[in-house]
Amino acid sequence: MKYIYDLHKTMLKKNLILVYEGEFTQEITKSVLAMAERNMDSFGEESGIKRKVFNVMVECLQNICKHSESFDVELYGKNNAIFMIGKQEDEYFITSGNAILSNNVESMSEKLTNINKLDKDGLKSLYKEIIRNGSLSEKGGAGLGFVDMARKSGKKLVFDFEPINQELSFFSLKTTIPRI
Amino acid sequence: MNILNLEGTEDTPKILLDKENKVFELSGRSLPEDSAEFFQPVLDWLEQYKDNPNDNTPFLFKLEYFNTASSKLILDILSKLEEVEGANVVWYFHEDDEDMEEAGEEFSELVDVPFDFKTY
Q: Residue B25: which H helix or E strand, with range?
């Protein structure tokens, strides 16, 4: 039973205010959002920061939902993901982790690296370019999620890919929202 | 013409399109699971309305939040409004919500419809 205490201590040490592990759906997205909102309200977080955190959370959670819909469970097993929010003195961080096909690692890495090269105006131009020329994917995504997260954050997106096996990789993403 | 009236929920906006009473409004939060499906009735309504519109069509956007998938559909609605003679957009944003103000400005640069900006 010690793992319970260990997990509790880890959460405190890492300043995690919310951790969810499991299946992701729109219903769960709504619940997680409501919990995070209540948490921020409970200590009177400033509305502008609250909005940005909410914004990044939605994109992050819906990314996972949309992705998991296309995940072949029979082939690759259960597609669980993790979502966490942390709060420090000077910033919030919103992190997620989920399995993706290793085939997609290169293109995603390239996409995120490009986003990280852009400044505020560059991100704005990219956003307008995608919204003007892009169409919704089969999964209903606009291809704007990462760009929007980078814009709301104002910081670089931190990401990593860990190989799970030959076909799958674990994609981790961290977005920071400054509390100033 | 029929009235399109959808109550807002925690993840979908309130929508009221009423030609006779001259109310054209979209407000609240928009993060539906399937934004294309959710907004299709609005696009269909406007498609029908544009053939015989009122002299003026002030279309109110009073959004507290919208996700990126909704932003694509908002652009589709605005593009449809381009085809409505006498249409204009009234873009409301909370007075301390710079992101919503900027979002409105960006949309106004993407379509050929007059925008008025108001705070609440």
A: strand B23-30
Q: Tell me if residue A91 falls in helix, strand or coil.
A: strand
* B23: in domain: no
Q: Where are the alpha helices (DSSP H) in chain B?
A: 35-49, 68-82, 98-110
Which domain, by its residues, includes B96?
Answer: 4-16+28-119
Rounded Cα distance between B22 and B17, Å, is: 8
Q: Could you report the predicted ipTM of this complex, rounded to two decimals?
A: 0.91
In a domain, B59, yes or no: yes
Inform me whether the pLDDT recorded for A136 exceeds 70. no
Contacts of A144 in chain B (CB under 8 A): 68-69, 71-72
* Substitution target from A55, A65, A137, A149 for chain B, most B beta carbons within 10 A: A55
How many domains in chain B? Answer: 1
pLDDT at B35 over 90: yes
Per DSSP, the residues of A97-164 read EEEEEGGGHHHHHHHHHHHHH--HHHHHHHHHHHHHH----TTS--S-HHHHHHHHH-SPPEEEEEE-
- CATH code (residue A42): 3.30.565.10
**A23-30 average pLDDT score:** 93
Chain B residues in contact with A47 by the CB 8 A cut-off are 94, 96-97
What's the number of domains chain A is made of?
1
Q: What's the mean pLDDT when you consider all of chain A?
A: 91
Q: Does residue B21 lie in a domain region?
A: no
Per the domain annotation, does B22 fall within a domain? no
Return the pLDDT at A143: 81
Q: Nearest-CA residue of chain B relative to A28?
A: B33
Query: Sorting pLDDT into bands at 50, 70 and 90, what band is A180?
Result: confident
| Rounded Cα gap, residues A39 and A57, in angstroms | 14
Structural domain boundaries enclosing A48: 2-178
CA nearest to A142, candidates B58, B71, B90, B94: B71
